[in-house]
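seq as requested:
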Amino acid sequence: MIGKALFWGSLGALAWTHVGYPLAVAARARLRPRPVSGDDGAQPSVTVVVAAHDEESVIERRLENLLALDYPPERLEVVVASDASTDGTNEIVASVAGREPRVQLLDCPRGGKVAAQDRAVRGARSEVVAFSDANARWAPDALGRLVAALADPDVAYVCGRLVLEAPDGSNREGAYWRYELWLREQESRAGSITGGNGSIYAVRRDDYVEVDPRWGHDLAFPYRMVQAGRRAVYEPAALAFERPTPTNEAEYRRKVRMFEHCWEITLRGSMLRRLPPWYLVQMVSHRLLRYGSGLLHVVLLGASVVLVGAGTLYALALAAQLAFLGAAAAGVPLARYYALVTWATVQALSNYLRRGVPATWDAAEGTR
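struct tokens:
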């Protein structure tokens, strides 16, 4: 009896988070849409914050891109919050700032990305603060697209779309990433997203909140805005471009580091408190169950082994799981990617329980 409960419970949870919930949120977005009442002519003052640690290979390119945005120059300033960089990052930024008054270097003690961002925002006097990774590149109209969404008084946070590119500029978005972007768009249309990305997002200065440096804005800001009675939305027309990690193995290591922070915020971040009912469903479905997907797969596999003699259905379920693992081991792209990312949630939980999670970070391999 316990084995069957574990089998059907884990199978149902996996089916819901990967299939049922996406269909449900898409239906809600279609039947009860909440469009953003933006203003394409909005031009508030903006401070773009670039948190950087040892980014000498890309920081000048990042600044040139931001300074060339299609946005009124007198309404834009750029702050590079250098998180105790030990290479030539500070010297490069200081050189650019010497000839461009809109650029400012903020030299911070080593404390991690969020701590550096907090220091930059404390000194900002603009109406909007926007954030970007040092290795990203924004489309010329990206900032205008972000602030247009923030013109809606209900919207406190907006993130753009990250486009993954190969070094030659060709698109490297995989099926899983396209699925995630589609799901994010459905959540936004239905109300609020459950997660953003660090490459391109903006917040009203008055709505900015300082969170635990181990959490990160990608996951903390959307639900914190909803807890405050505001909206967190996605603007797919605001484009940022980055190179993806070059291999599944490098992506696995990056995901392990990311999911360590996810477990920290899940277990200690009060992310399920004071939420409207539908958004609570979203957080459980898209975040809690997704982070627990590795554990759910382990439980499902174990229950299938125990129940293999209890009926044809359980034998078929076990065979299907073993076939999928075989495909992943053989290098079938989508199967291998899903297996690595899913197992990363388990490895990350193990790491988190053994040693916690640091606030500092290093650049992902091969993305510069």
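The chain has twelve helices and eight strands.
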